[in-house]
Amino acid sequence: MGKSTTARLLARQSERAVHLEADRFFTFIESGFVEPWKAESHAQNETVMRIVGDAAAAYAGAGYFTIVEGIVIPRWFLGPLNDALRGTGHTVAYAVLRAPLDLCLARRDQIDAEVVESIWSQFHDLGELEPHAIDVAEATPDAVVRELTGGLRSRFHLSS
To answer: Which residues contact 134 (CB under 8 A, 6 or more apart)?
Structure first.
């Protein structure tokens, strides 16, 4: 059960909804691209996530329930995305679908195992964001969507 499947199911519950896949925005960079997990990619990552936030804000401003799906690492990506959305008056909810490392490694595609482990570890201890995590190891997609839906305005809501 993955984040894309969950986002699609969540979007289908609304009459007007948008599912923005944040990872796709990185593929628009034709030259000068730096792998987003590298330390030297920080400025690029902030730019891309602000653009994702701008696109999400435009859809939300047009009345669409907007879901941004991606590997939104709290210390790297959440701030720029949250700032872009809040800057246009939108509320933001943040949820982490926490999958076991072995599942993440199995789905890694072309990414080195060490990189996957490093990214996975960014979600291991979320500190004050820990209540935003959902353990998806044994959960069905419908159960995860129900949990997300039930907590969008409370449990997963980000305060200013």
So the answer is: 95, 96, 97, 98, 144, 147, 148
